[in-house]
Amino acid sequence: MIPHLNGRAEALSTFGWTGRDAEWLAxxxxxxxxxxxxxYLAFVGARHRWPAGDFVQRCGRAAxxxxxxxxxxxxxxxxxxxxxxxxxAEDVRHRRAASPAVVLRRLLSLDYVLxxxxxxxxxxxQEKVAALADAGVPETVLPRRVxxxxxxxxxxxxxxxxxxALDDGRxxxxxxxxxxxxxxxxxxxxxxHAGLWAALRKxxxxxxxxxxxxxxxxxxxxxxxxxxxxxxxxxxxxxxxAAAEIAAIRKAVATLDTSALEAWGGLNGAVARCAALESAAxxxxxxxxxxxxxxxxxxxxVPE
Length: 304
Hints:
Layout: H1 19-31, E1 34-36, H2 37-44, H3 50-59, E2 63-68, E3 73-78, H4 81-86, H5 100-114, H6 125-134, E4 144-149, E5 152-157, E6 164-166, E7 170-177, H7 183-202, E8 206-213, H8 216-230, H9 234-254, H10 258-261, H11 267-281, E9 293-298
Helix pairs in contact: 9-11
C-alpha cells in the first residue's frame, strides 16, 4: 500500500479497479493526469511490454492514448471526471488537455514520485494548505496566484502543482525543470517559496529542494542555484581560500621568511596583499542559507 494515498485507491473499486492498478490510477490522477507505458511497467515491475498495452485497453474511454515525443512512445491521458471525483480531486486540472511543456512537467513530476513512493506527498492544493497550517505556517507566506474571470477572482495556492512532501521533521519540495525552464526561472520559483521555507525552518523542520529534469546541462545550471540557496556556492569556497592565504602571509611576515614572501613580491607586496584580502572579507556577506539541502535528479524513463 502506498502511504500517502491514504486508502483513496479503494474508492476506484466502484469502477472495477482494485489492487496495484487502482493504486496506479490514483497516483496518475493525483500527480500528473498523464503517464508513459514504461512508467506503468516500472510501477508494476513488469519485464515485458504487453501488460502496459493490456492496462490501457482496460481503461477504455477513461483514457486517451497517442504518440508522444516522436520516439515511439505512447502518452496516456486519464481524463474521466468520475475517477477524479471518486478520489476527491475533481477540481485538479490534470484531467484537462495541456501544452507539450506542461505535459512534460507532469510526466517528470510523476516520475520523481514513482521513485520516492515512501515519502509523505501532499498531492492536492487543499492537502498542502491544510498540512502546512497544521505545521504552524501562516497562510500569508504560501505561494499564490490570483486568477480573474468574468465572475470574479480566485486565489489559488501552489499553482505549479509540483510535488511537496511534509512530515514532523522535514519538508521536500520538487521543482520540475522542463526544457523551457532557465536558471532564472528556478530562482523566481525559489523567491516565491522563500517565506514558506523560512517558516518551516523556524518550526524546526529541515527543508530539502530537488530539481528534477532530463537534461544534464540544465540540471548542472540548477545545481549552482541550489548551492547558492544552501550557502555552499562558489562564494564560500573563495572565502576559505582567502582565509588560508591570509594565514600564510601572516606566518611568513611573523617569521620574516624571505623565500615565502617572494611569492607576493617581497615584504611590502605581502602586506598589501594581506590588507586587500582582509578588506574584501569584511564586505557584506551573501544572504543566509534558504534551505537545508538541495540536489538534482535526472529522469531515466522520460527520454530527451
